[in-house]
């Protein structure tokens, strides 16, 4: 099996397992400890912020290749078996169906980023204004 095909297969499995975790999280029978770990796992999986930034050669990618699968396995290990089986069936059913792209979801993510950038700007503006004025005054 070629490396590219193997990576595509693993990516598909990872996506399917993330939906398994999502469905297990929604199940009211799932213990709260499992729900907390699932929330951390899915949050880290979809977060643009990594423990080790991706621009650091090799280590940035290793964090995604090692930490994410470990979190997924740990989450799956504490989900009760009957809930896990039902969640996997739902995830498999979802994978077999064609789902349209959710543009509303994408717009919500963009809106969250814009609000965060706006808040960060207003948080840092006084410092940047002071710093910029001191730079200009030094060169005047």
Automatic annotation (TrEMBL):
<dbReference type="InterPro" id="IPR010652">
    <property type="entry name" value="DUF1232"/>
</dbReference>
<dbReference type="GO" id="GO:0012505">
    <property type="term" value="C:endomembrane system"/>
</dbReference>
<keyword id="KW-0812">Transmembrane</keyword>
<keyword id="KW-0472">Membrane</keyword>
<protein>
    <submittedName>
        <fullName>DUF1232 domain-containing protein</fullName>
    </submittedName>
</protein>
<keyword id="KW-1133">Transmembrane helix</keyword>
<feature type="transmembrane region" description="Helical">
    <location>
        <begin position="103"/>
        <end position="124"/>
    </location>
</feature>
<feature type="domain" description="DUF1232">
    <location>
        <begin position="34"/>
        <end position="70"/>
    </location>
</feature>
<dbReference type="Pfam" id="PF06803">
    <property type="entry name" value="DUF1232"/>
</dbReference>
């Amino acid at each position: 099996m070629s490396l590219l095909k193997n990576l595509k297969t693993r990516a598909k499995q990872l996506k399917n397992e993330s939906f398994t975790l999502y469905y297990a999280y929604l199940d009211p029978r799932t213990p709260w400890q499992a729900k907390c770990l699932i929330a951390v796992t899915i949050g880290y999986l979809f977060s643009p912020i990594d423990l080790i930034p991706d621009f650091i050669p090799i280590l940035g990618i290793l964090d995604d290749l090692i930490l994410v699968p470990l979190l997924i396995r740990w989450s799956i290990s504490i989900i009760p078996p009957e809930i896990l089986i039902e969640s996997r069936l739902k995830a498999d059913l979802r994978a077999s169906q064609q789902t349209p792209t959710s543009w509303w979801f994408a717009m919500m993510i963009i809106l969250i980023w814009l609000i965060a950038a706006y808040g960060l700007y207003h948080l840092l503006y006084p410092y940047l204004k002071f710093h910029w004025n001191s730079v200009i005054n030094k060169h005047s």
